[in-house]
Amino acid sequence: MSTNLVNPDTADDQELVDRFLSKNRAFLGPDPAIQRNHHVAARSLHEEQVLSAGVDSNLYAEIRSGLRAALDETFKIAEMTVASPAAQCADMSTGYFTAAGDLSLASTRGVAGFTVSLHYPIRFIRKYFEADDTVGIHEGDGFLLNDAHYGGIHSPDQHLFMPIFHDGEIVSWCVCAMHEGEIGARVPGGMGPMIESPWDEGLRGSPIKMVENYALKTDLVTFFQNSCREPQTMLADLKARLAACCRMERRGKEHIARYGIDSIVGFLRSNVEFMRDEGRRRIAELPDGTVRTQFYIDDTMREPALLKVMYCFTVKGDKVIVDLRGSSPELFNRPINSLLSTQVLGVAITLAHHIWPDMPCAQAIIDCFEFITDPGSIADCSDQVPVALCIQPMFKIMTAAELAFAKLYFGAPKKYGKTKAGWFNQPAAIIYGGVTQHQDSCGNMCGDLNGMAGGAKCDEDGEHSIAPCFGANVDIGESEDAEEKLPFIYAISKRIWPGNCGFGKFRGGAAYEYGLMRYGEQPFGFQTFTGGSYFPSTFGLYGGYACPTYGTVRVRGKNLFNVLKETPELFEASMASIMNDRLIEGAEYSSHSMAVAFELYPEGELFMTSQGGGGGYGDVLDRDPEMVIKDLEEGLIRAETASDLYGVVYDAETYAIDEAETAKRRTEILKGRLAQGISWDEFMATRVNPEPPPAVPFFGRWNNSEELYCGPFGKALPSELPPIIMPDPKDVEIQQLKSQLAALQTLS
Amino acid sequence: MKRIAVDIGGTFTDCFVSWGEQFIQTKALTSHHNLALGFNDALDQACEILTIDRRQLLQSVDSVRYATTLGTNALIERKGPKVGVLITTGFESTIPISRGRGYCDGLSDEQARDMSRAKRPDPLVPISRIRSVKQRMDYRGKILMDLDEADVREKLKQLVDAGVQALVVTLINSVENPEHELRIQEIFEEEFPSSMLGAIPMVLSHQVVGRKGEYVRSSSAIVDAFLHSTMYFAMSALEQNLRENGYTRPMLLVHNSGGMAQLNSTDALKTLHSGPVAGIHAAGQLSLQGDIQNIVCGDMGGTSFDIGLITDGGTKHYDFNPVVDRWRVSLPMVHLVTLGAGGGSIASYDTIFNTVRVGPQSAGSDPGPACYDRGGMNPTVTDADLLLGYLDAENYAKGAIPLNTRRSYQALEDICDEMDISELDAALLIKSMADSEMAAGLVRELNGGGYKASDFVFLAYGGNGPLHACGIADKAGIKKILAPPYSSVFSACGGAGLDQMHIHEKNVSLGFYNKHTRALYSEYSAFNRLVESLEEKGRADLLRQGFREEDIQYSLELDMRYGIQKMEVSIELENRRLKKPQEVLAAIEYMNTDFAKRYGSEIVSPESGVWVSTVRVVSRVDLGTVKFSDLRPPTERLSPPEPVTYRECYFNGHSGAIRTPIYGPDALSKGVEISGPAIVNPGETTYLVEPGWRYVAAAQGAVWFICENDTLEQ
What we know:
heterodimer, A: alpha+beta, 4 domains, 7-stranded antiparallel β-sheet, B: alpha+beta, Nucleotidyltransferase, domain 5, Rossmann fold, 36 strands, globular, Hydant_A_N (chain B), Hydantoinase_A (chain B), Hydantoinase/oxoprolinase family protein (chain B), ACX-like_C (chain B), Oxoprolinase-like (chain A)
């Protein structure tokens, strides 16, 4: 390792200094040289020797088929044997990597995004542990990771890596990666609004050798179990990951025995290069240009705010520049900051699932992308801030990339995916925690998060709650199974509600609400951590509407099971009916943003939340009136939406459309739009303010300001940002109450 | 034994007649407008061989068994009644949401991962025909909210007014307590008596499925209701045809559970995929009678490659949440995996990896491969097979489809241009890729179950099975292949050997080992009462069909899992009653062993608790089976007959053309041994013996392919 800290006179001196420094490192923290580099590693000597002799792409295709079968086999093993509810719903992935850590092949099913960001820890392990006598890398070793600062997405995910050796040389790595959930954080499930520091995030597993000689180390396993709320789940999942890795390693070695080591090394590397080159070729097909998008995260998770996230995609030749400058500064004590590596991952996932769906999901496909950021911002945060909910800004860049490439491909001769509006993009899940009816301690989430709605397509409507924006073929699960294991009932189970989709010529998919009613007397509670209550989560395309806003609501202070039994007529399984009618006397009804901190709930209290819809495509006035009426009949929209927004005139009883009147009303709406139009100059003069509204806690660039606004903390240049420490909402509330009290006392 | 078994497929009606020592196989075109016509045609062909008339044949047989794709086709074509659904309040969107992943069910992995085109299939029940009713049970069956009967009557009226022709009632946790589902049925009968004209059938979810999972139970009940009338009328017409021709016994329908039952004891849902399942049953019989320990079945047709497993000398494997067409359902069905790989699979240039990709798109039979000369422009596996010399252009399908080689060459042009290779190299690549994909599918199935491919015999059947068998086996590491006897009607042959069988199961939550109390399960009486009640149901089914109680055999299966894991393992409890801790411990030990074998010893986790989630009783009556001859490779070998001709053929791993002998039907004589490369084409099937393989003809037209470096002994 060389350094610029000193300037010795000779090479020998340099070596001495390097040796001293490497032996006297206080902490092997995340290495920026690794973490900030998503590019494919250079060929190793072995890879160069093999590939310089020629690439047998047909042999490699046969190897690919065999190794993919092995990955699918091991994925199935892990999926069926894990205990984590999310992983049971396929929130996981398996993969083979090159010796240097580049992802070569991932399992067909599941969330390939997990494996896309795992080149970082492999490089870390090789750089720092391989030559370290106290650690080393040996056959049968397995390294566990869950700290996103070393790779991966966020701390509730856990990944196990196993090297594959041949003749004493590491020739590949295999990985089983998944969302574990509970990891002993301040709140159950490893994620939540109340995580206010990296030290609230629970176990911060830098790469740690958890497996030796193909066996889990009992002392470490016990430590991990002892540090979290779900010791049984932890054990079961460590075993599942190990079983999957052992099987992958064995299959890898069988392939080496069958095809020879050079063929396997050549395959693994060439697969990476094929993907890298194809990604570059596809970018080169696009016309040069820039697409800009901005999103707002509307909640810090403890208080409402407008946190700007800027995205500017520029295609130039066979390169893409992603400029994230102008995004909100990082928040020191809120969990929604994201690392640069997370943003990079978001782009790769979107391309693989939405734009180039025929391409495998790997970091190599965005090798030709470069990222520009303001370090210390919400899109490229420091190591000092919590990142447990980094998926908030990550999901935003996913939609940004989805929409940017929809536009970049507008005039392109060849499209690989179908053009569509934005997929819903928020983790709208209820995280639970406490003690179950089976006396198990727990803290996790069900598959309800996975029911995100699809955006409207260029030629048809989007699909109702169907799959998370980050992975295909992922399960939502069965409510009956969840009720069997956990102390609640689904008072509302995944029910689509009217108006919860982006309108347009083609509407986005609608999304469901759901409500959990506490059942049993054990201590047990809920929380949510989603945005989108004030500002739309995802956008429409070419005139289509964005996703409507939504919220979390609660009914407390009464045991609603008594209501179900004695006065069932007072209960309607609909969030709107419950909250609008408020029929249950004595109950406390409250509505909230989608970020509600963890609390325990006694039996019979009701906690309800919702997924958001997909964005719409095209002008609402171009929607076929028959399709509008079908939406109305299916309860996807309200009557006012059909008539006022879509401009459809129909008989309220028979739903028969009056075509002539519809055409007339639509013409009137068009005229009304024109009447509202103003010139560009007038718009700039009347609608553009030089500063953000004072009442809005705004974070990020305003107009073209060089400085970033920091909410109540003023503004500063990106290089001079102050640490933004938000006050505890309870302290704020106490202060307000004290002020009121003081005012009252003054009055009296 | 005198018996008739029929497999009514989409194109052909296959017929297998067991007539004492004589076995007859015939085929006729399926007559979709009246299935009886195709059946009679196939039967008449058999009668001609036996020199008897149809009535004589039907009066002599002990049973007529049907396996049919009728239900599958009706699902695919969406031909069925308007179904309406009543579901628990708050769960109205359960069916359209389909667990999210429902859009992927029935798709290839490649199609499933394309989120930009993600689209659910057209629903069997649209949102507008779903109504909720106010009621609620908890997970143990305790009533949390009483059934609102006025609400039920109103919703029933709404659905009937909307014109529904069949009704499904699917209430949450009804498998724990069916009281409300049954009460709704009573109310429906009160409001709309079944004696009235236009009576509507009602299906209760708990009567179709005994397991939890509200979506899969609902979709099962919906599929059942959707197929009910179609199947009932078609099968009744067939039964009527039998009656008119002198058959007096009950007609039997093959079930996808691997058994069969009378029409009046058959849910429509149980008939889906019954044909391929009967084929796997036949493989099981081969395994038992031929002492072949492990078989992996590969049925390669024009559009798909169906894989099934027989292990440990005849054990069939089951799926409990199989996908039928595009719907995930809940029922115990013989495990069957379908890959999109067949003769019609389309090959294309893979721009990412600079190679050829095969499938999952298929040219099907219309327009079919380019060489069919029916307008197909895409290159397919069959085109590659033709160019490599494996197929006889003049006599393909007994001459019914003349093949145009020029079209195959043209279809390959794009691939050749992209890859800068010759047409023959492209064809070799397509053959290799197709074989690799199918081999990977076989290996995935075997490895996933904890098995090694080299321990298995590959049973290759279907139109393209024996043609690609060596290539697939080579890549899968399998050393022995058996092309079975009666391979062209193999599924019908399987139907002839089925038992009368019924499966009844109950969702339970029994802690065989409770980690909190550290106690073993001890409520033996309750457990035994449950088993007795399930046996009683099976007994009632079989007694109703005229069997004697003493002929009924039962087996008891438990689905078990560790702690909070998802994976369940089915084990058989031989004693069928629990009396002491040793039996509980034995069940746990059996589970541990099975788990370790499948997933590795790392994963065995009894310490996290052991739970029984389903108790299942299989009730059956043994009705005898088809006795195959000794199918082992004969010890006495015959020299190959004189080749009919020679052709220039091309093989992977061999440069240039090889002059390959082509043999006719006489090569099927028992004991004939031929070293590859060679082609045997007796008319209906092409047997391709690739270099490195030997062909050995066994009894009854069965053929073995033996890898040259392997022995013949089983």
